[in-house]
Structure formats: structure tokens, C-alpha cells
Amino acid sequence: MSFRIPRRGGLSVSASLLRKPALQPQISRTFFTSSNTSAKAVRYSTITRNALVASIGISAAGGLGWSMRPETQLCDNGKLSPEESDAIQKRENGVTESSPMRLRMEAMIRQKQKEIVEALEKIDGEKFIVDAWARESGGGGVSCVLQDGNVFEKAGVNISIVYGTLPPAAVQSMRAHHKSFDPNDDKVNFFAAGLSMVLHPKNPMAPTVHLNYRYFETMNEDGSTKSWWFGGGTDLTPSYLFDEDAIHFHRTLKEACDRHDPEYYPRFKKWCDDYFYVKHRHESRGIGGIFFDDLEDKDPEQLLSFVTDCLGSFIPGYLPILEKRKDLPFTQDEKNWQQLRRGRYVEFNLVHDRGTKFGLNTPHARIESILMSLPLTARWQYMHEPEKGTREHRMVDVLKNPREWVQTSA
Amino acid sequence: MSFRIPRRGGLSVSASLLRKPALQPQISRTFFTSSNTSAKAVRYSTITRNALVASIGISAAGGLGWSMRPETQLCDNGKLSPEESDAIQKRENGVTESSPMRLRMEAMIRQKQKEIVEALEKIDGEKFIVDAWARESGGGGVSCVLQDGNVFEKAGVNISIVYGTLPPAAVQSMRAHHKSFDPNDDKVNFFAAGLSMVLHPKNPMAPTVHLNYRYFETMNEDGSTKSWWFGGGTDLTPSYLFDEDAIHFHRTLKEACDRHDPEYYPRFKKWCDDYFYVKHRHESRGIGGIFFDDLEDKDPEQLLSFVTDCLGSFIPGYLPILEKRKDLPFTQDEKNWQQLRRGRYVEFNLVHDRGTKFGLNTPHARIESILMSLPLTARWQYMHEPEKGTREHRMVDVLKNPREWVQTSA
């Protein structure tokens, strides 16, 4: 990982930000342990809370569809805000198994981002550009992007951590899914943390992969947890279908799911097929994977463990496929087909994806983190229809009729 | 213009369609006068009314945002439908100055499509692919597309003509703008005809251009006109700004407007800047032009003449610019910048354009006609920001701060 020097005319380091203690310790302790943490080398920008939420919601923000009110760092009653007390707790005790779930999720996604970025740099040979960004009242995110590398056309691995308050409309809409919401609350403190990733390899035989895992909670004034849930998913979008890859990818996800609940994989596989359906093309974006939201059906410890396992399954589930496909020979026609499929990817993300739509409609969102999911290049060709019997035709057939790639007992 | 032979597995000629007299005469009389009208050579497809409306609304469908109910060719009372009687009138009398506005608008856009396509073929050297499509109950459209030509990366010139009935919700929403709507009507016959065009030249120095002109009316049972209005606009999207081109383009539009109403240009120029604003990027899609909707402030004859004049101003307004820029030398960096601007074009069309959004959400819409507006290729590069003092930076500056390109007295 290499840090990016702020460019002339770009976003610049804010001195007041760097003086704030809230963000610095968590960055140096967890994420940037082995890296150069010199303030000059880290690119910061001042953003709003909305931008943080928007960047979490790169795909399937789900319940994150609200706009937020300004907040102050101290609560109305003069006590420390949940964010401030979390920052102190991290600084004084680090993050342990007895820390609040907020801090454990944050530490987990920072760790996973680091592992994933390191693994991807190893396979590509090029380094990610790292943009660590913060907002005035604390909290922040880290966008890691590798563009036009040896293996990847574009690879983005983002995390963001948000503290804020929900307006009444958002509380109202969330109450439907979460009965623990207090109907008398008009101001709800919330926390959201997520890791989002999209990888577009150059070789048309190597599939695009996307994942997004997030934790959401609302808090009492004293920082104790009120409501909480997990959401996320991992899905694969090949231009050329290798059945063995699809089977390996789904099997790895199924194994991660099965370790926690035998009903998860079939349920979340279907949810994924439903979510990533490109209605106007009558086809799926890819060959699916898993997807879930509002997950609160087990003990939070168990679900953190499940989500950690899902994230952990990414490297064994995807990298062997990438290794096998990244250097396969291909023709210009095959590259064109990949570019056309990239176009469909753009269509899904810009037209249908709830997280992207929400982000783009959020004032002052960090657009570059949201649209990091788009490929470097894409193509739209009028009336392109693959000939029957070709590999391209079979790919489309599978997108129109999602398959079961691994046997389930359900 | 060359006709496309239906491909194996593609959309095929429907024998029952070709037996219907309603569409054939209008095609051979007006649009395809000098062309081979052999049924075998024309590519037809059976589509729904929604698809026709959707394809009209390639940009800024405006009031066209409803879904429609099935209709029969004969009215409930057994009389001929407006469409059927229009078809008979065309067949027996042709289209004259005393014909209903529906037929005159249709004849006008067919003629303009022909003129524009011929002019563009002359400048490119390659021929357009022509897809004439019809739906079972009559009416239809013609999509002309030139892809990967000598001058054009992608050029699409579409017309469509629709007859249908409006559901109550649409009537309700239109009543706000058009007081002539009868509040007691629960079923309203309507007609819509439009020409839409998007040209993406290859050379990054040559600007993309878009236009869309349409006529909408509702009819009494006997086919006489109840409410009606015109809408449309023409706008330019350069990657590199040549002030003289912007001035020439706007001046030509202003002259067309001024011949009809001195207040039109300033009013429609501002409307255009407002409509083509890419909110999430805080910039305009291009350097504007004119845009208007629900126009019914003059005699329909005068407005048909205005819209005809706007369409007529396209060739003198755009082709001289294209001639000057299409063969200019350019670097790979300049081509990349064009591709990035293409990406922004895609963002506007897929995220913000009302017509595209409506079309994509319309079941059974002819997606290829709607997305004909997208460029052949586009690019998204993380955190690309042009350096101050460069031509790219100036372009963005103008997109963020729309200019007045010609003096107006208003």
C-alpha cells in the first residue's frame, strides 16, 4: 500500500482535523500499523456525514436511505457523544472482545481491508492508492484504489465508519423492520461501519467480483446499543462462464454460511439473485453469490463471526479463480464482449442499485468513493446479440436463468 | 441508408403485421420514398405501446411518465379509432396543410429524419442501419443507427409515433399543466410523435450533440383534438471547448427561436441549463442549447412551424462545427479525456434523465432504442481532476458555470 500525496488543487490536509485526537489513534493502531502514518503523506478531506453513509452504501445500502441532520460532538446534555467515548475507549484500552460491537466491527473491517489490499497487491504487482478521509466531527473512511494495474483494470476496497443522528422519517421507516425501535424517540443516535469492494480484472476470462459487509446500530445517550443489524453479500460477474469457477465461488460462500446456519446459503443465494436483477435487460448482473440485510436473527457475537467468516471467504473463494484466468489468451472480440458486459454492470449500478442511487442523491457525498464501483472502461453497442451456440450466448442464457451451482439440502 | 436483414435469433418479421395496411403506406409515402421497401429487407418487431412511448422519451419525456392500458383498434362504440381513421386519411388523401396536426407532425419528423440521416451519411461515408419497428395494433418507429463509422463513434436518429389511452393517474397529473383536460374523463385517447437524436463523434475535438422534438395530444372519440403541446430541445456536449463553436451553435438556435418569439431563446436556454445539470457532479452535462416542454402558448400552426425551424437549424448549427473538428489531430490523453466525459454523459442519462429513467422502468420497452443515446465507449477514472490552466480544466469550469454565448436583449 502506498500513500498518496495531496495534489495541487485537490483535496488538502486540514490542520484542525489532524489536531483532533479522535481519528488518529484508531488509524495508526489498527489499519496503518505497518505503514507510514506521516500526516503529510495521508490524503485527508473534510466531508459530511452524508458522504460517509453514502460511501458505505456502495451497493445495497438498504436501510441507509435517509438524510441526516447536523450533529455536535457533545450530546445536548453536555455528556460525551458515543463517538467521543468510543474514541477514548479505543485510545485507552484498544479493541478487545469486551469492547462494544461498533469498535469490534470497525477493527475487523480495517483488518480485512488491510489483508485484502495486501493480497491484491501481491497478485497485481502494483500498489493501491490510499485516500484516508475524515470529516470535521470525527469518523472517516479509507478508500484504496488500484487503477490500470497489471491484473486489475480497476480495483477498489473502501471502508467507512459513521456516527450520526437519524431524522424522524428514517426512524419511522426502520421501525417496520426493527421492533426494538422506541416509537417515542424523535432523535436516534446511530453508527454504521462497512467494507465495500469491487474488482474489475483486465482479462475478459477473469470475473468481476463485488462484496459489501456492514453493521448498523442505534444507541442510547450513554452509548449502549439499542437496535442493531448486519447486512452484506459477495457476488461474481463473469464475462465468460467457467462452470468450475462458479461452483468453487458458490461452494466457498456456502461453506462459510453453513458454519453458521444451514438455511443461510439457500436463503441468501436467492436474495442475491433477486437483488442483482437488471429489470430492463431481463437478466442478472452476474452469477450471484449471497446477499442479506437487516440480519438480527442471532446473537450479535454470532453474526459478527458470520460476517467475519464471509469476508474471510473472499480470498479463498476468488483468488484461485483469478490466478487461473488472469493470464489466459483472449481475442479482441472477447475483450469487446467484456466491455459490453461492463456496460451492463454500469447500467445496474447507476439505474438499479439502491446504495449507489442513494449516494448520488445525497448532497456533498464523496462521489469518487461511490463510483469507484464503475469499471475503468465500458461499451454500448446497438443491438448486439450473441450468436446461438457461442460462449457469449451461454453466458447470457445463465444470466437470464440463474442456476443452482451447489447442492443444498434445503 | 441501408436496410438491415433480420438476423437468425433476432427480431423477426411478423406476417400479420405486414398484412396490416395502417403502417405500410405511411412508411412508403413519406420516409422510405427513395429506398427499397421490400418487406423482407425491413426489420420489424412486435412491440407494445409502452415501448413506443419509451423510445420517444429518449431524453426528457416530461409528461410521458405513465403506464398505459391495453387498447383495441376499434373504439368501444364500434367506431374507428383515431389511429385507424388517421391511417385511412393518409392513404386516401396524403398529408396536406389541412390534415390533423398528428399527421403533419408525423410527416415532418419522417422528412427531417430522412434529411438528417442523409446529411450524416454524407459526412461519415458509412451507412446507417435502419430498424423499422411496429406493434400489433399499428403505429411504430424507425431507429437509424450508425456505429463505429469514419466520423461517428455512434450516431442514432429515431422517430416514433404512438396512439394509446391514458390511465386516470396520468390524466390527473397532466391536468395540472393543461386546463383543457376534462375532469370527468376517465379514459383519454392520446397521440405522441417525436424525433430523438444523439451523435457521438470519434474525434475528441468534435462535440456530442443531442436533440429531441415531440408533439403530444389528447383526442375526442371522433379523433378531433382536445389538448395538445410541443416539447423538445437541442444541446451540445463538447469534450474540448472552442468558444467559436459554442457561439455558432447557440446563435443558430437563437435565430431559430427569434423568428418565432424573442423571449423563447433566453427562456429555453435557461431551461436547458437547468434540465441537463448533473447534480451529483455539480456540473452541466454540456454547454446547453435550448429545452422546453408543455409548449402551447401559441397557435398550434405557429408552434409546428417553430419546432420545424428548430429541427431545421440542426444541420446549419452543428455540421459546420463537425466539419471543422472531425479531422483535427489529437493525443491519446485527449482521447482519454473524451472517454471520461463520455462517462459523465452516461451518468446523466442513466441517473438523471427523466425520459431514459421512464423508458427503462417501462415493461417491454425497446431498450436498444432508449439506450442508443449512450456512447459506444466510456471511461471512469478514480479521482481524475484536470490541472489548472489546461483546456480540460477550462471545460469543467464552463460546465460548472454555464455561460451566455450570445447576447440577448431580454
Automatic annotation (TrEMBL), chains A, B:
Keyword Heme: no
Source organism, top-level taxon: Eukaryota
GO (cellular component) term, any one: cytoplasm
One GO BP annotation of this record: protoporphyrinogen IX biosynthetic process
Gene Ontology molecular-function annotations: coproporphyrinogen oxidase activity
Pathway: Porphyrin-containing compound metabolism; protoporphyrin-IX biosynthesis; protoporphyrinogen-IX from coproporphyrinogen-III (O2 route): step 1/1
Keywords: Heme biosynthesis, Oxidoreductase, Porphyrin biosynthesis
Region (Disordered): 78-97
Record EC number: 1.3.3.3
One Pfam family from the record: Coprogen_oxidas
Subunit structure: Homodimer.
Family: Belongs to the aerobic coproporphyrinogen-III oxidase family.
Protein name: coproporphyrinogen oxidase
Source organism: Pyronema omphalodes (strain CBS 100304) (Pyronema confluens)
